[in-house]
Structure formats: structure tokens, C-alpha cells
Model the fold of this input.
Amino acid sequence: MQEKGSTDKTRNDFHLSHLASVGQIAAGIAHEVKNPLTAVKGFLQLLKERNERDYIEIAESELENAIDILQNLLHVSKPDLEEEPYVSIDLTVELESLTQLFQDQFYRVSVHTNLQEPGTYILGKKNQLKKVFFNLLKNAFEAIPEKGSIHIEHLSTEDEVTVCIQDDGVGIPHEKLRMLGTPFFTTKANGTGMGLTLVYSVIYQHNGSVEVQSMENAGTKFTITFPKETKNMKWKEVICLELEQTTNLTDFFIVNREVFERRLLMEAVSVRDKIEEILAIGNINLLDNAHKLVLFVIEGKEYEVIAFAKQEGITWAKHSLTLAFKLEWIQAVRRVMWDFLYNYDRQHNQNASKEHYFNLEKNINQLMDQFLNQLFISYSHFKDDLILAQREMVTDLSVPIIPLTPSTSILPLIGTIDEARADTIEDKVITQIGNERIETLIIDLSGVMEMEPDIVRKLINVLDGITMLGGQPIVTGLRPEIVKMMIRSGLSFEHKAITKGTLQQALVDHLK
Done:
């Protein structure tokens, strides 16, 4: 049996040969055709002022499509066309961020994420990899015609990082799986086939592999594996900075704060444009908070780190800010902090043993991980408490027991009473009668249009409970339709409660 590694290599070589064979042709076509098409598009824009506007707009749209296809061919045939540097990338951050771009689809497609081991890095070109996962997520949503679900998983081993994106959509016929990633091959009615070509091309350029499992009408699963960033790989160079020298590490960060903040803004690309927005929404100064966190961490103040994380988690949850941005920001803080530690060590400890540096690295990473864990826990707890409070508020509103006098209360019921609401009425009425010693409870049903026999039986049980606790139930506002249903079902409030035609009549008689 052929080993998995050998199989993956054969599959990768197969796709690479397809890409290579089309590469030279693609480059030639793109360069020869793109410029004339762009010129034609320009003339069409000028012609808009004349007649036959509809035809001109159609032609312009088609030319847009042609230019997009040619642009994609250029990316495949010459992937390094965009000079983008290799950087350390935490794919959990990118996946969280990209998933939010599809919020308009969440009403029909449920997205389940299992992003294990955040803080695990690969070395890559961030924008190219974002395009890869955007394409895969877009395909997953489009593969689900109505309602369905998508599962996104991030796993890490000692040597590799794996991302799985699985949908329960229409699936891909078995005989067509081998053709995925080939230019111009598509299973979509209006597809160009270039999206997955770009996906395969970028993944292979990052020394990654792609495995696809699919079954018609059962869904598709893409498994992408990258080598984990290690010391044997091409690391992003640690920046040697011209920084003010100090006698201790804390002063080093305080004195060079402005440089730290500039470097942080350069590093946190996705968050940088959101800083003013976050400040306006929640009065959260990200730069001040980053500086505070760094000082807590380098001084080893575990209690302060945990307390600060809890405070931050509550603040972000309270203002419904995206956790993906927070995670990316904290990871950027970590990276810039290590640039500074490298520079501090270069200035002060050139001849010293590196053991102290490794101990410092261990302690700092532990505190940063602790900060993230406590942040997520605090964020989740606040959200859970908020949901619970909202549920309790809804329950109170659905069963509003209103005090009229110290011994008399009114329960006006409006709308549909289903089984769950009937259970809530029973629980709240019996509890409140017992706790507050209500002598008379007027239950007004004038706002209830209909009730099923089972619901009436539950209401009769409530009336029995009120009586057992020494209270007097009064039922008002019964509609003729409900009374007819009760007669047909052999149900009655006789001997269970006093009945009155209207709430007003009950109040007049009771308060005489």
C-alpha cells in the first residue's frame, strides 16, 4: 500500500504539472490580451453617453469578467507577481476574521468552529493565504443551496498545522474530484474554475498539501496541511531597532514607548484601521492597554495580568467587539515585544549566558497565554450571563404579575400560550403566591385568542395550586371560542375560581 506522504506528494506533483503546463500559455495570453481589453473598456465608458446604453453595459460587464480571469491566470502563472513578504501567521486569527465576512449567510448556514491551539504559527504570505481560505469558505457557503452547516477546524501537531473546512452541501461527483484545481475546470454553472486553481497554487507555494473528500448530496471536506514554523525555516527577521538604553527592562519599554507603538501599528495590519472605531464604540484605548499589558508581563505580575484579562474580556463582550481582532492584536503585541527583548538583550547581555533569556521567554509566554485564556473565559461568562438575564427578562415579561394592593395582584396574559409558557406560568405563579402571600390573584385572559385543551388543564392545575396556598383565583375575559372548546372537552373552572366577564368588572366587585 502506498504511504500517505507518498500519495500526497504524487497528488501535489500531478497538480503542479497541470499548473506548469498552463503557466507559459497563461502568461502569454494575459500579457497580450489584457492591455487591449483594458483599452476597449475605457472606450466603452466614454460611449455610455450615447444610445444603446444597455448593450454597452453588458459588454463592459463581460470585459470585466475577462480581465478578472486574465488577472487570475497571471497570479497562477507568476504567483510572486505581488511582492509580499513572508511573515509568521496564526491561522486561527485569519479564520475567525474571514468567517465574519459571511455573516449575511448565518441565518441559513450554521458555522461551527473548533480552532485548537491558537498561537501556533506557519510562515507565509498573509494576503495570499487569506484569498485561499476566503475562496474555500465562499465555495462551502455556495455549495449549500438552502439550510445547512459548515465545520471549520484548526489542529496542530509537532510539525504541522492542519485546517479542515467541511460543508454538508451538494458535494462533488467522484469522477470530477481529480480535476479540482485544474484551470478552467468548475462544477458551478457560472464558475470560471480559477478560484480553486489559485487555492492549489498558493498552498503548494507554501509547501502545503490539499486533500479533498466529497460525496454527492452529502458534502465536501477540504483538508489543508502546512509545515509549522520552526527554527529551520526562513524566519521573519527580528528587527534591530535604534532604541534608548536603560538600566532595566521596565524602563526600557517605558522610555521607548513611542517606537513600540509605531512598530505595533505596523505589525497589526487588520486591527490598525479599527483602532478609532473601537475607541468610539467602547472607549477602549488599544495602545494604552497594550503598554499596560507589556509592563505587567515583563514584571511577572501574574495577579495583575489575570485581573486585566478579566476586565478586558468583560469590556469586549459588553460592546460586542470581535474576538478575532483582539486575538490578532495580542499576538502582534507578543511579536513586537520579542523584537524589543531581542534589542534589549543585544544591548545588555552580549557576553552573558542565554539561559536567562530562555527562562524569560518561558515566563513571558506563559503569562501571555494566561492572559488570552482568562480573556476568553471572561468574555464567554459575560455573554452567558447576558443571555441568561435576557431569558429571565423574557420570562418575567411573559408572566407579568402586577401588584394592585398588598394582598391583590393581576396577571394579564396576552398572545399564545404554548406548553413551555404554561409551565412558566405555573412555576412563577405558585412561587410568587407562596413567597409574597398574595391573597387574591386576578388572571385576565382577554388577550388570549385561543387555548388548546392541554393548556386549559395546566391552567386548572395552577388554579388548584393557588387555592392550596390559601389564595383566591379570579379568572376574567374568557372568550366565547375558549368557553366552547372547554364545554366540548368537558373542562370547567367551576369550583376552581371565580369568573368575571371583564377585568374592569372584577376590579369593581373586588375593591368595593
